[in-house]
Design brief:
homodimer; about 375 residues; alpha/beta; 7-stranded mixed sheet; about 20% strand
Chain lengths: ~375, ~375
């Protein structure tokens, strides 16, 4: 199915569950934006594989996928022996956790499901509680994004030109997204605005996923080479920047996000353009004391040395762009210091990055 | 012939002339870095086409190509009728000028050749003078780049990590290049250093041309996504930035260069990293009074929406990367203000950008 004829409805989610078939339903994100396809995983092993192979990606989306995957695994259990059931829970939990070992969201989501199951006395009760907890996790993810949208929409005035980097849209969550939430809420309120999506090399999530999402939602937008936003800011063509984050340090206000985010924050500060970061509360890391402690993943050289895309024949292909005898450095993320950030948009409101620690009681801090 | 087995010699130039065959010899730059091939244009029409179709690109290189092309055209003239000869000169001049109508270098170069021919009394004398003038133009281009290298090499200390953007290397000139000249001179002086080449989307001249050149010269280097340098600066991994320019305003010190240059200058200023621009004197525009008067070319969307490269089969191909229903903005250049530039490296020495006007007598200004 071609995306250009696909129209998204309000009821569609990035991650969903089919109780009749005991299947997790996922948008096959690796095919976007050239092909739209929903895959149904038949068992928890397939669900784990979908996380591992990046059929689904993004913090909220993989959290919900793991929660549903755990429910899927326990629902498939046959019998009423509680000891055997517990062994099955442990096995499913481990397989799903191992699918993306450094991610924190799947673990948090599955811990919620396990905590809910404690209240059940029989296998049947525990199964029902697991499914309900997974549904609740997914619904809360949507609700938090809606709240981000409610707070953030105020920042987008009519006629605004908004820059975003990478993809922190509904494809990265169960629905709505974080950086995109204020845009969708502003759109629902009838505001007119224009979005510039940084291409976001080397993996081009802006040109592929964010642009696709905005096209589906009917939000006017243009893609930019990552080199171009500075020039547009200089010419007064950008009014606001909103990005997502992979990790915000609650103690310092530092923001980790896709490589290139720091550069855009430096440019925005020079041009006195407001720079916002939209996140759910689960993205706040209350432990780390310095941005220099955040491990920055060095990814494969091949991402920088070439590009994946579609040939005129529609066949997906990788082309080597760079000189064949040259190598590349490929840091995947960077850290933006709090002085460059106007505000952190959360479901609980908008905060100055350096006020997060002071406001930690409101922001879900558990000591 | 594969580039990885090609070894560049000191005697090789981007643009050269074969007097026996009356042919201009050009590196076919559109095939780089995947294939190295020298083409010989058989007449001035083919030379004009090579300029037009970007077989050869870069200010100095197209200047020398036009000068040689004009000599090639007049050398092909048969007879000794001076009127008919003059008509031929005008025709060749016009065809070569029309190949790249907005470029200033071909015109300046051909004017030098025409001025030299004035001194000849016969067709044979004029032909000899034309060829000598074209050779002199090319030799001066090389000499100017050597002088840039002599001044700029002092800036590269042993162990330095140097960032460059786009291609201002020997492929853009007859030899040596401008931004690369200090690197090659430092290398010749026995210094060890490392170069980071920005990929330079959307046309990727850094990943293709600059990386290829540095590999040929044996200069250790890595390619970076355009998003990555900010992070490396933050971590203290870049000591110096050197770029070229398409136009430097002599009255204000503003620098026009490939899109993304301004962004790197802003980042360098924040991190107190010296930022230099290397240019021949012909790049200085003494007329314009403001950077806002510089026309910024908006190029084809398709450059941003996809990438050219090589398939595993070695076939050259374009892949569409972006969402098929999205468009792009594609400004080709940006303007960097003088306060972000540490110095302008010229054949006449290194100058503060705001001192160019004061020093105009040294810098070839003609009122």
């Amino acid at each position: 199915m071609n995306v250009t004829i696909y129209t998204r409805t309000k009821h569609f989610r990035t991650v969903a569950f089919d109780t009749k078939k005991n299947a997790v339903l996922l948008i096959e994100q690796r095919l976007l934006p050239h092909e739209f396809k929903i895959v149904a995983t038949r068992d928890f092993h397939e669900t784990a594989l979908a996380i591992k192979d990046m059929v689904v990606r993004g913090a909220g989306a993989i959290g919900a996928t793991a929660a549903y995957g755990l429910a899927q695994g326990v629902l498939a259990f046959r019998g009423d022996d509680l000891n055997k059931f517990s062994a099955q829970v442990r096995k499913v939990y481990q397989v799903l956790k191992d699918a993306r070992p450094t991610a924190v969201d799947p673990v948090n989501a599955m811990n919620d499901v396990c905590a809910a199951m404690q209240k059940g006395r029989t296998v049947e009760e525990k199964k029902a509680l697991a499914l309900a907890a997974a549904e609740e996790f997914a619904n809360e993810d949507v609700q938090h994004c809606e709240e981000i949208g409610r707070h953030g929409a105020k920042l987008i005035r009519n006629g605004a030109r908004v820059l975003t980097h990478c993809n922190a849209g509904w494809l990265a969550f169960v629905d709505i997204g974080t950086a995109t939430a204020p845009m969708y809420a502003a759109q629902a309120a009838g505001k007119k605005f224009h979005v510039f999506c940084d291409e976001t090399r080397p993996r081009s999530q802006g040109a592929t996923l964010t642009a696709w999402e905005l096209a589906q939602q009917g939000v006017p937008h243009h893609i930019l080479a990552d080199n171009a936003a500075g020039h547009l800011m200089q010419r007064g063509e950008i009014d606001l920047v909103i990005v997502g984050s992979d990790r915000v340090l609650g103690r310092t206000g530092e923001v980790t996000n896709k490589i290139g985010t720091y550069t855009k924050a430096v440019l925005a500060a020079r041009h006195k353009i407001p720079f916002y970061v939209a996140i759910p509360l689960s993205t706040i890391d209350w432990n780390l004391k310095s941005g220099f402690d955040i491990p920055i993943e060095e990814r494969s050289e091949s991402e920088v040395l070439g590009a994946w895309g579609h040939l005129p024949s529609k066949k997906r292909a990788y082309v080597r762009v760079a000189n064949p005898s040259s190598g590349a450095r490929n840091p995947g993320f960077d850290v933006t210091p709090p002085e460059l950030i106007t505000g952190i948009i959360t479901p609980a409101g908008i905060f100055k990055p350096r006020d997060l620690w002071k406001q930690r009681a409101k922001l879900g801090y558990r000591s």
